[in-house]
Write a structure and sequence with these properties.
This protein is of the alpha+beta class. The protein has a single domain (about 1-140), classed as Nuclear Transport Factor 2, Chain: A (Roll), CATH 3.10.450.50. The chain contains four helices and eight strands, in the order ββααββαββββα. The protein has helices at about 15-30, 30-35, 60-75, 135-140, and strands at about 1-5, 10, 40-45, 60, 75-90, 95-105, 110-120, 125-135. A six-stranded mixed sheet has the order 4-3-8-7-6-5. Strand 5 and strand 6 (about 95-105) form a beta hairpin. It is globular.
């Protein structure tokens, strides 16, 4: 197992070029305008979860919609300590399981979240992304849990 210079943990068992690309993408998440440079213009991002249960759930088409999503997320929480737990690379398809530390801006509550992503790459950029996450995490951190 290796630790990259930017403190993103990445297992050694994936294709090295793709593994490094995924690490770069996660590091860039702190800067949404830089992050979307890793996306194709026509990228589609599917955040699994119904909007009435999870305000970030839905389908986002193109860089502008995805940038809007990132700004909405960042207005609610701070994301730090990204860690890739598992990664599988099959040509231009990537499956990863990762953790991130989330701090809610309003309550200062902190939680470690596990996230699963399925990605399809095209020409070294993300063309399609699926994100699977416990959709109740935001309610718990904000204190709005039923």
């Amino acid at each position: 197992m290796s630790q990259t210079a930017n403190s993103i943990f990445v297992p050694n068992d994936a294709n090295i070029k793709t593994r490094e690309l995924i690490g770069e993408i996660l590091v860039s998440r702190a800067q949404p305008k830089k992050f979307i440079e890793y996306l194709h213009e026509d990228c589609v991002c599917h955040v699994i979860g119904a909007r009435h249960d999870y305000p970030f759930g839905g389908e986002y088409r193109g860089r502008e919609q995805i940038l809007g999503l990132l700004h909405r997320i960042d207005a609610e929480v701070e994301l730090t300590e990204h860690r890739i737990l598992n990664i599988v690379v099959d040509n231009d398809n990537v499956a990863l399981k990762r953790e991130t530390l989330v701090r809610h801006h309003g309550t200062a509550a902190v939680a470690k979240l596990t996230v699963a992503n399925l990605l399809r790459l095209r020409d070294g950029k993300i063309a399609d992304a699926y994100e699977y996450i416990d959709t109740g995490w935001l309610r718990r951190l904000s204190g709005d849990e039923d």
